[in-house]
Specification:
The chain is α/β, with parallel strands linked by helices and 384 residues long. The chain has helices at 4-11, 44-47, 56-66, 79-91, 105-120, 137-141, 146-149, 167-173, 197-210, 278-293, 296-313, 338-346, 369-383, and strands spanning 23-27, 30-33, 38-41, 96-102, 124-128, 159-162, 178-184, 186-187, 193-194, 213-217, 241-244, 255-260, 319-325, 328-333, 349-350, 352-353, 358-361. The strands form four sheets. A seven-stranded mixed β-sheet has the order 4-12-11-10-7-5-6, with helices on both faces. Strands 1-2-3-15 form a four-stranded mixed β-sheet. Its cofactor is pyridoxal 5'-phosphate.
Length: 384
């Protein structure tokens, strides 16, 4: 049997810390490696597989569309693209009226930054400490952690960073040249930190008073992860730009920016060769149908509450704090988290970090209660 791990190590650009296993199959919340070992997947491709792995309805939609039409540039209209655009606007906050389709989260953020600058005729952005928005040059400039940024400087100018959940610091950072405020509703990579009601009420007020656009990054939180279809629903946010990706198309690469009427762009100012291709649109339509027809946001809320109750009832002493909203779970330890992630993998549970001391769990919203119990049992054994 080939050692695919060694092959990737030899031929792949060295950008990923490999976990030492080769995954070859998935079904719902479970994946299998090349040796046949089974795992409960609480990484889901960094929050991609909200409806589980290899969902048969998505596989069917992709196969049927692949036999019909795979690619179609934005210069031509397309039935699947049109249907997806309409569906996204029907389901999103009322402020959002238009859609730009792309291929990833960082591309969605990159487009939102460009749209904000050209629509406002202003050039500066206020972002949050601990915020993560992507790795392309614009999205990286909006990302806080210096370890991601330092090797690539100089980056795009005009980005200010203030503490999250601190309205006073946010207000003080705004200038006459502020085009937009860019925030996550829950900071994922930054340690699973949810915003507060008071904070987002202040954010809305600051944007209105200063004629500033609001960009909300829901690349990780969108499509049911937090117990609502979009996390901004928890705070009645009406963003001007909503960035989506990860779980939008059931695992097929796709991103989107949803725009309010304040966004004014012209043909040729931005584009994407593969954005909105019929294959990805068919997968997204199938994914959204599964999310809504099976009430998966509500399932995430119920299962997240179940996890919280079970875990806090037996909270291990090395846990500093549990932060959880829906099935977006961060367990902050009093020590480095990596040894416990490795120990969980040995126990058949795949988890990931969100910083040096936070263990992050992003299971499929379709995970069963029995599987949640298996995850809880492994977690408590490892952390104790």
């Amino acid at each position: 049997m080939s050692d695919y791990n060694d092959i990737e190590k030899e031929f792949g650009v060295n950008l990923f810390n490999k976990r030492g296993i080769t995954l070859v199959k998935g079904h719902n919340a479970r994946v299998w490696d090349q040796d046949g070992k089974e795992y409960i997947d609480c990484t889901t491709g960094h929050g991609v597989a909200n409806i589980g792995h290899a969902h048969p309805e998505v596989a069917k939609a992709v196969a049927e569309q692949a036999a019909q039409l795979i690619t179609c540039s934005g210069s031509f209209s397309n039935d699947k693209r049109a249907a997806l655009m309409q569906k996204l606007i029907d389901l999103s906050p009322a402020s959002l009226r238009k859609v730009f389709l792309c291929n990833s989260g960082t591309e969605a953020v990159e487009a939102a930054l460009k749209f904000a600058r050209v629509s406002s005729a202003k050039s500066e952005f206020v972002c949050a400490m601990r915020g993560f928005h992507g790795r392309t040059m614009g999205a990286l400039s909006a990302t806080f952690n210096p370890k991601y940024k330092k090797p690539f400087e100089p980056l795009v100018p005009g980005f200010r960073f203030v503490p999250y959940n601190n309205p006073e610091k946010l207000r003080a950072a705004v200038t006459d040249n502020t085009a937009a405020i860019l925030l996550e509703v829950v900071q994922g990579e930054g340690g699973v930190h949810p915003g507060t009601v008071e904070y987002f009420e202040a954010v809305k007020q600051i944007c209105t008073e200063n004629n500033i656009l609001l960009i909300i990054d829901e690349v990780q939180t969108g499509f049911g992860r937090t117990g609502k279809l979009f996390a901004c629903e928890h705070f009645d946010l009406q963003p001007d730009l909503l960035c989506l990706a990860k779980s939008i198309a059931g695992g097929i690469p796709m991103g989107a920016v949803l725009c309010s009427d304040k966004i004014n762009v012209s043909p040729g100012q931005h584009g994407s060769t593969f954005g909105g291709n019929p294959l990805a649109c068919a997968a997204a339509l199938a994914t959204i149908e599964i999310l809504t027809s099976e009430n998966l946001p509500q399932e995430a809320e119920k299962k997240g509450r179940y996890f919280r109750e079970k875990f806090t009832a037996a909270m291990p002493g090395r846990v500093r704090e549990l932060r959880q909203i829906g099935l977006m779970i961060g367990i902050e330890l009093k020590e480095k988290v990596q040894p416990y992630i490795a120990a969980l993998q040995e126990r058949g549970v795949l988890a990931m970090p969100a910083g040096a001391t936070v263990l992050r769990l992003l299971p499929p919203l379709t995970i069963s209660y029995r599987e949640l119990d298996e995850v809880l049992s492994a977690l408590l054994d490892v952390l104790n």
